[in-house]
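anyone seen this seq b4? input:
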Amino acid sequence: MKSRLFILLLLLFSGIASAQDTIFVKNGEVIPATIVSKDNMEIKYKKFGQPEPAGIYSVFVSDIKSIHYNDGIIADYTVPVENGIINKPQTPLEMAGKMGVWKISFGISGSYSNRNGSDNLLLFWQNWNGTNTPEIKWKPVYYSLDLKTSFVIGQAGRNIIGDELQLIFIPKDAIYSTNDDGSNEISLRSFYYNIILFYGHTLNHKKNLIAIFEPGFDIAFMSGYLKLANEKYDNSADFGAGLHLAIGADWIISRRVQASFRVGQRFMKIEESHKSSTSSTGWSTFYVNYPSNKDLVSVKWNGPYASLGLSWSFYAKLKTGRPE
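predicted toks r here
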């Protein structure tokens, strides 16, 4: 997992290193550049690839045909001036923030987490085995599929709100333990369906780096089994609900591609239940240590996590009921 994250980060940062703007002048000159500032009269730039401190050059707006920005946006300066304002390129975020335009993204994320083992599953396990030595292992890496929608609010275009549906796939045997002879065994996993709201605020003038605050409501289904004295008990329909809170950043690499990073804390506890042929309902539960401890066995999926994701976006225009 570490090698995959390293390769992903290397690719992302290599994209920054190779990014450049290109100025097309009406006399046919093509200038690879890094735009420093611009107004209605002139564009100031540094020649791309020059070592620091590099000289700053300028070109009159009236002499420019177009500018191709490194994020794929093209500013066409041959369009007539309207209301004294030269045609201004729009960032991907501004394009998504027009009235009646939604940004819709599909993506995949990888996460690394720790589990809070303060539940009573370990006590139940140690009581059943009659020893404190059996440890419960945890697989920390999991993946998710993400569907997001968002739009910009406010005249400045610096605030974003949106929602997200997330399907998280925890690996098989995420929680696992066995005794020496294999007669007792724990094997549990969860499947999450998360409903997320998020708020973002842009951090730079290009508005393509966004700080994110993300609360979410989590629904989980636990499956797997407990094997006790060589008898297997199926946990196939255990259900729980919880929350998570996260902060992070979104980086709009281009109009279509976006990277996301989150760190957060998940809060989820699920009570164990298993199929039972002797129960009138067909289901039963284990106590931690009956009859001295009649607490039902529960599993905490709580813990901190960090995730890194990539998504692909498109824009859908909705009718607003008023003229553009």
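The radius of gyration is 27 Å. The longest strand covers residues 231-252. kinda curious what u guys think
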